[in-house]
Amino acid sequence: MKIAIIGTGYVGLVSGACLAEIGHNVICVDLDCEKIKNLKKGTVPFYEPGLDKLVKKNIKNKKLFFETDLTKALPQSEIIFIAVGTPAMRNGEANLSYVEKVAEEIGRNLKKYAVVAIKSTVPPKTCEKIKNLVSKYYDGQFDLVSNPEFLREGSAVEDFMKPDRIIIGAQNEKAKNIMRELYSPLNALIYTTRLESSEMIKYASNAFLATKISFINEIANVCEEIGADVGEISKGMGLDPRIGKEFLKAGIGYGGSCFPKDVRALRHSSGVNGYDFCLLKSVIKVNNRQRQLTVKKAKKLLGGLKNKIIGVWGLAFKANTDDIRESAAVEIIKMFLKNGVKVKVYDPIAMANAKKELSGKVVFCEDLYEAADKSDLLFIATDWDEFKKTDLLKVKKLLSEPKIIDGRNIFSPSEMKEIGFEYWSVGR
Length: 428
Ligand code: UGA
Fold this sequence. Notes:
Elements: E1 2-6, H1 10-21, E2 25-29, H2 33-40, H3 51-60, E3 64-67, H4 70-73, E4 79-82, H5 97-109, E5 115-118, H6 126-137, E6 143-146, H7 156-161, E7 166-170, H8 173-183, E8 190-193, H9 195-226, H10 230-238, H11 259-272, H12 278-302, E9 309-313, H13 328-338, E10 342-346, H14 351-358, E11 363-364, H15 368-372, E12 377-380, H16 385-388, H17 392-398, E13 403-406, H18 413-419, E14 422-424
This protein binds uridine-5'-diphosphate-glucuronic acid.
Uridine-5'-diphosphate-glucuronic acid binds near residues 149, 151, 152, 153 and 254.
């Protein structure tokens, strides 16, 4: 099938490359000329395992093309995806201006029937608004579809190729069948719904996973008071299939470009529609408090923070990504700095992105040992595999004091004690 994808951010580019890989002819469109120039050469603007290989291969096979001009991509397309950003505004509301602008342009340039599919995460009822917007400029036939994505950074290609489910919200069978045909090579479970339900499934899924994380973080905090081990509790709870074992890892709170934004947006849009979603208010509060508790722990362990040196391992919001958006690591570092701490940081791949935000404020180290060297405390903020394989005896020698706060529970407390660390983790 012939596909256009507007927006070559995370969602758009992964979807475009994967749709080309399963046999479709895909044109990815973005306003950013520099980005498109690089993509044409196969240069992916962010780190995502397996993506650059897929992009290069499908450019070579003439299945994947890049354009800055929307009007060149539209005429031949059977499905036009909108995959531009919906960043959060100050009040939590999703900013729909990019989606609306693209919809307007599609309306102005559409010449024949096509399915317009929204992949951007949008609040319920947005698709209906977008449909009206396209209709304002185009009086021919088209269908609007909601097709949210469930890709995780770090495993996005695999998530696309082997999805648990594909959600398609549409108003008629014709549009549903076109979308079914698109995804048929994946042999995946396809669940079709009405438009608003599909939009809500995306928000509800992210908000529920964020709730699970805040829930286990609260259990972890209680565990610290009563001497239980949150790892054992997650395992014990997760054995119940009604609960499930995923997203029960306690830590320093969820971050990234999706959970924080989507939880706030769902809360805001519920409020606008007359419902106070009070559970989500607590989910957000617990998530913020988890960062503050980490700073409190460091203060207690060091007997004050002013002029102390803290080495930080990990800047990305989770392992296997270079993304630092709403990263708990970066937020905690900023709190350390406010408290007069000197901070030394290391991350396997997120350093370049972190420099944009922390340059001149922290010391960027060549490797994890340099970050530990002469530090009064080591804080583990991201669960990179590299950190798990480290020479702990060497780390102990390098630290001024053998003190570690492990915000991701990557080591065993008993082994750390045996080595001679004063080791504080989360909920253990
Ligand atoms: C998330 C969802 O998992 C995807 O399904 C969704 O498509 C995506 O958002 C999106 O809306 O685009 P992602 O943001 O890549 O994916 O990251 P996750 O793996 O979900 O992790 C989010 C945050 O929760 C990270 O900071 C992670 O460290 C934290 N987390 C995750 C925990 O603290 N504990 C856990 O048990 C799991």
